[in-house]
Structure formats: structure tokens, C-alpha cells
Amino acid sequence: MKTQVRSRLRGLHLIACALLGAAPAAYAQVTAEHGPIDFTVEGYANATTGAANLHADTDYFDDGDLRVDAALRGLARLRIPSGPDVGLRLVVEASPEDDVELAEASVLIFGDAGRLEFGERQGLPDVLTGYAPNNFTFTGAEFGPASGPSLDPAGGLQTAFLDDELGAQLRELSVLGFAASLSDDRSAKALYVSPKWRGLLGGLSYASNAKDPRFTDLVQAGLTHDRYWKHNALHVGGSYSFARAGESAGQRDLRSVNLGATLVVNYDWMLGASLTYDGTSGVSRSAPRGASIDEAWGSVASLNYNRGSWTAGAFVQWSTREGDVDRAGDDRLRALEAGLSYRVSTKLRFYGAWYYFDFDDEGGELAADRHEGSIVLVGLRATL
Prior knowledge:
single chain, mainly beta, Porin, 16-stranded antiparallel beta barrel, 2 helices, globular
């Protein structure tokens, strides 16, 4: 365990040194100009610990893990007076799973008609710089880390404190309701983001091979609309994912749609709701003769409130999908999370959350297939 912690801290140290070397002063985002080239450098480190309890046990148990997730992001943009601007974006990340890696690398073309991007990148991407929520999601945990593994319904930070098999099963279900399936795919792709026009923003991406080895020809598309009045805002829209199953995968093609809305009231209250529907896509083709394949779908509702330095929030989630086609019953997840954070400054934030889940594997017909538990997490986030 000590060796693992030292390895993670070394990864964090490398990123911190790169950040400190990028600029003499510590800001959440550092910008500089060198002739026609603009540079933007930003970084974060999230340190989280957690204790999980499966309700078959009597006490919370701690897996003895301190999780550190960190990243350094850089964007260089060359301004060309007679033509579109071009840019280069690099993201270096450190995590317990991957140590230090080049997580994203892309070349960009900026013009009046929008932005083109080529490289290793998330489809329907988050903003190029800063830590605003992804434009194509509508629910979330505003009290948690704004990037990296998060406390969002499909953020993955909660399940990181469960054993690998159970955590993977929950992650498979937790995206349903939060976003379209494969929305977080990071693979070599071409993508386009439109300019904002009358509140509308669109995106489209294509990857010949998804990071998930079961799928090829991943196409993702999304459209959102924002309306503002007084101190309120309404954000509505949706996204769609299509991926062709590989010849050797034995899966059905994936078709996934997500629709949602976020209402911000008086800048303080944020209410969100979203729905994901996958139908019978993306599951194994090896169902016994005469067996029915049940549809996959999920829903999430969230509520967040901000008051000064404090942010509180909660979400509920319900999702279901076919599991093993050779067994009767579906995989079902019911989850609830509540949390609170306190911002010491723009560079330091403390957060905590309680996550409850009730997971039935194949309908929970057997005692071993029923999993109910809760996880308590606390952590801090620092930006440079």
C-alpha cells in the first residue's frame, strides 16, 4: 500500500512541477502571449479518501486508499489574420489506474463557422479550457470535483472505493440517465463544435474505433439550447451515440439517446433532470432461442444550491439494462447521493458526500446477486 501511495504522489509531484514551471505565479488558469501565439495553462489535483459499507456487513470498512487524481492542461493558439486560427491542446493526467499518461492530444482549427478538432479527445467535448460542466449533460453534483473522476452520477469517484468487479457493474449502469452511452469515450477522432447561434450549440464527432474494444465507427451528435431571463437560465437538449459492434464482439450495434434539462433559478438553485434510452442495443447476441431482451434506460434528477462559499446538493438515479442474456432478470441500480462543499478560495475546496446504492444483479434472484451499500467520501481540490 505504501508503494502505491508513493507512486501516486510521484505522479502528482511531476504534474505540480510542470505547473509551477509553466508560470511563476499560481492561478487557476495562466495565460500568456508570445507574438501571435496565445498560451493557456491550467491544472488541478483532487485528493479523496472513502469508506464503503456493504449492508451485509455491520461496519464501514476502509480499503486503506488515498486516491489522488491530477492533470495539467495546455492550449497553444496561433492567430492568423488572413485565415482561421490553429491550435494544439495537450492534457497530462495522473491517476491510481494509469499513473502518468498523455490523456488527450489534439490539433484544432478555429473559424467563424465553428471549431474542428483532430486527435485523442472526448466526443461532444467539455470546454477547451476551464472547468465548466459539459454542455451535453444536464444533471450533476456541483459540490464535487469539477474535473477528473467526480461525484456526478457517472463520475466514477464513488465506485473507485468498491472492489473492481462490483465497481465495474455499477459504472456500466450509472451512465444511464446521466449521458448517452460512450459519451466519455477518449479515442482518436474528428469532431466539430458549432458557434453559438440564438442560444443553440451543436456538436458532432466520429471515431473509427472506440476505446471500448467491442465497438467501431462511433458517431456522436448533440444539440442544446440556452435561454436566459432576469437571474434565471434554462438549458435543454440532448445527444445521440451510434457505434457498430465489432465482428468478433458478439454484440448488437449501440444506439443511445439522452435528453435533459437544467433550470437555474436566481443564480443559486440548479434543478436538473435527464433520461437515457438504449433500447436493446449494445448487448450480447447470444440469447437463447425464444428469450426476450429487455430494454435499457435510466433517469436522473438532481438539485444543487449555492450560498456564498457553500454548495449543497443531491441526486437520485434509477437505471436498468439486460445483463447476462443466458439468465432471467435484468441488472438494476437505484442510487442516491447527497453532499456538501466549502470553497476556501478560488484555488482550494473541501468536499464530502454520502452515496447509497441498491444493485440487483440479474434481478437479484439469488442472495449473492443483491448488493446494497453506502460510501462516505471526503476530499480536497486544489488548482494552480
